[in-house]
Amino acid sequence: MLQALPNFGTVVAIRFRNVSENVTDEDEKCRPWYMSGGTQRPLPAAKSPKSGRRMALLWPEEDPGSDRITNQLMFVPPSLSAVESSGQRLKKILMYYGLGRWFPLKPGRDMFREARCPVDTCSITLDQNQTADADAIVYHHRFAQPRHPRPSRQVRSLHLLFWGFHWKSRSNAQS
Q1: Neighbour-count burial of 57, counting CB atoms closer than 10 A to its CB (0-12 exposed, 13-18 middle, 19+ buried)
Q2: pTM for the whole structure
Q3: Which of 20, 22, 82, 173 is 20 to 30 Å from the Cα of 63, by its Cα?
């Protein structure tokens, strides 16, 4: 188990908890849905009474220096039930270079339902012809500039599994 230690400046110390240490029932109850044995489920996000917009901080510029990944995984849009009941369009996620080693991920909506994702109104596609219509595009290890301008609602994500120094070295070698 990972346990975060106090943050002293920009270096964060992490220690591994001995697996033989007892995990209490309380630990199990506090784990979020996306962790093994996790049961804590997110609730729909609160809206600002003034603006009507979500109050959750999900993007880097909204809460600099925070762990927004946890915020994102525990986020449910305020109007999710309205989306489901109205039959609105599913959020389309384009895996730009296909699924490759992303096994057991598969196209469609089933993966979200099988994983009991709190937001299962998404669908995975592999069709690059849907680039302009995708709500999110996930690039794996390399980025390709699409042939269309990015719609304001579209999110693009680059998934890297190697550390930044390696990436910088690769970038310098390719320039």
Answers
A1: middle
A2: 0.67
A3: 82
